[in-house]
Amino acid sequence: MTVGIKSSADRRQNFFVGLNTGYVTLGVPDQRYLDFYQRRASPALHSAIVGNVVIPGGFGSNASTATLSDDPIWRSLASAIARRGSLPGIQLTTAWQGYAGTQSFRAKEPGAVVDASRDLIAAMSEKEINRQLVAFDQATDRAIDAGFQHIQLHGAHGYLLSLLIDPAFNARSGHIRTWLADWAARVAAADAESSIRISLRTGASAIDCDDRAAWLDDLSQLAFDYVDVSSGFYNIDKRLIYPGRPEIIAQRRDETVALATRNPGQQFVYSGRALSHVTDDLPANIHIGLCRDLIANPNFLQTRTHGCANSGRCHYFSRGEKHITCGQW
């Protein structure tokens, strides 16, 4: 870890966790995109992580995703976030050709999604898997060159990397673990922060009934600066990704606390209505991830009022819209 990273882990930090705003034109962020993040960045936010950015040559989760490129907007975006007092972060991802996100919040046949995901990974050759890993490496270099100082791998929600790293879907995941370790070391050598977003659960009982703690612990032992804890696969159960029901919120908190307690040497980002569930017994290695409250109120961290009213309008893809909206802001 760099000196800056060590000092940031000495106290509880706030993160704006990655999301897809849909504010793009032909895959390139537009002025709405820049304004969205610039308004929400502040010294109260350790890092504003620009979400769901597709690696060059990759595939987006929908038609409104941004793809990392040499366009000067990326450097302008990182600079705008930094000027406002937050560490500019970027979340790198890809789906696959033919991927289609479901608009419903729960799959009728989660087992079919699991089987299709396993078949997809099993059909990938070693050459194709390595090509994807090289593309993540190249995207990382491009992001750092553009001025992003926190680089996150999106290894959650059923996108390609989440399937590759997970032994429940990829029998060759040991090779991916080795690459993850090397990737984290490369980011540290570039004097940037590293993180990985993971899903505690998929939403499919056939997967989640197994003991996944050992795999989650192994992943947490890698030299990432932070492990960003989410849950759910997008095409199985979105309720786990965007918790709203009390029992799902409590489950996310309990499982995040258990993971952080088992791995005291790692720093974790806890999201999912997290700020309202910070208590004295929350482990010191847990930091807070915000999303919907900051969508609703760009100044939420300053006012702690007028946050998310849970209207659901931010779920733009599920509502058949092209970009994020919010009745509050």
CATH-assigned homologous superfamily:
Aldolase class I
Order of helices and strands: HEEEHEHEHHEHHEHHEHHEEHH
Q: Quick one: overall form?
A: globular
Number of helices: 13
Strand content: 5-15%
CA(first)-CA(last) distance:
37 Å
Proper CATH architecture: Alpha-Beta Barrel
Q: Which sheet architecture does the biggest sheet show?
A: 8 strands, parallel, barrel
Descriptive report:
The protein has 329 residues and is of the alpha/beta class. It has one domain (3-303): Alpha-Beta Barrel (TIM Barrel). 38% of the residues lie in helices and 15% in strands. The chain is built from 13 helices and ten strands. It has an eight-stranded parallel barrel with strand order 1-4-5-6-7-8-9-10, surrounded by four helices. It has a two-stranded antiparallel ribbon with strand order 2-3. α3 links the parallel β4 and β5 (87-93). α2 packs parallel to α3 (73-83). It is globular. Mean pLDDT is 92; it is low at 1-8.
Helices and strands, with pairings:
Layout: H1 3-8, E1 14-16, E2 24-25, E3 28-29, H2 31-40, E4 47-54, H3 73-83, E5 87-93, H4 110-123, H5 126-145, E6 150-155, H6 160-165, H7 173-189, E7 193-199, H8 205-208, H9 213-220, E8 226-230, H10 238-241, H11 246-262, E9 268-270, E10 286-290, H12 292-296, H13 300-303
Parallel strand pairs: 1-4, 1-10, 4-5, 5-6, 6-7, 7-8, 8-9, 9-10
Antiparallel strand pairs: 2-3
Quick overview of this protein structure:
The chain is an alpha/beta fold and 329 residues long.
